[in-house]
Amino acid sequence: MPYGSPPLNVNPIYVTRPNLPPLADFLPYLEKIWASKVLTNNGPFHEELEAAVADYLGVKHLCLVANGTLALITSLQALRIAGEVITTPFSFVATTHALHWSGCKPVFVDVDPETGNLDPALIEAAITPQTTAILPVHVYGNPCDVAEIQRIAQTYWVKVIYDAAHTFGARFNGESLASFGDLAAMSFHATKVFNTFEGGAIVCRDAEMKKRIDFLKNFGFADEVTVVAPGMNGKMNEFQSALGLLQLDHLDAALVARERIGNRYREGFAGVAGLRSFSYRAGVSPNHAYYPILVDGSYGITRDALYHKLRAHGIVARRYFYPLISSFPAYRGLPSARPDNLPVATRLAEQVLCLPIYPGLEEHDQDRIIDLVAHPHAGVTTH
Q1: Tell me: the pLDDT tens digits for 8-63?
Q2: Beta strands 226-227; 221-223: pairing state
Q3: The pTM is what?
Q4: Which domain holds residue 130?
Q5: 182 and 295 housed in the same domain
Q6: Among 118, 226, 277, 288, who pairs with 262 as Cys (CB 3.0-4.6 Å)?
């Protein structure tokens, strides 16, 4: 058995598990799809979900797309972004891949040690005449310093596209985190708080931009015979849209369940030396999409030792985000990717561990996780 793998007789507890509505509730939607023969191309469920998600988030203009990576790429295309884009190394790799596929040059800057989000002071210091945009991430659904980033963007005449993949249901001063920036790209992947199997959305500021994005996600077609831009096939289909409509009915209950688990973890780890969590900014109503802990040298064992210990007990925690994007072969040759340019992000990547959190996580399993994490040397397996 590989080191750190769950025992063969244990059902693994993964860091997340897709939240799904009752299958019986989904069947009437499938029957309507079969009856209509409309499978994609802005069908009735797509139109209904687009309006429902915009209403839930409290935004006026929103475009559904097939996945979160396409949301990022289409956002960059819609704003005609080229040249240098300032971004974070502490994210899922799709954030930077979207820049690569759009022909942009990523410029990595370091992050705030309390939130894991881009440090605004370092953003400003990294701006050059070639900078055209800033691509921050609301890491773990914790908002970036949106006011300061907006000030920088206005001062230097650059655009802001937020990677809002982690933010569904999270609010800052009463507003959805997807309401900030020139555009915000969301992910509805199976691992997210709100999922449509795969899927995503772009939140935009006006009807004209929505029209442009709608063209781009449909190969650039403006009408049957007119292609206005080299778009792609980024449409959400009717199956995804139907699931999304059902998911919205269950979302508030799922957020309550996530908060309950997060609170139990927080209480269980209070006073444990060498463990800390990221700090939420004042004014945040979090969605508890993740429960990251940071493991430092005073904990008793290393982060990786804890990671393997949990796996040996059937608990598949994840090191989100390790390694840093800037360390991957595709990007480590960039001048901004040097580890000495990113000391905080490098340290966080070596310390972070995300624990299982999802509505169906049973209390006895939560207790087992808390016990294993709160007692570093308990349950350690030698190999």
Answers
A1: 556 899 999 999 999 999 999 999 999 999 999 999 999 999 999 999 999 999 99
A2: antiparallel
A3: 0.95
A4: 23-246
A5: no
A6: 288
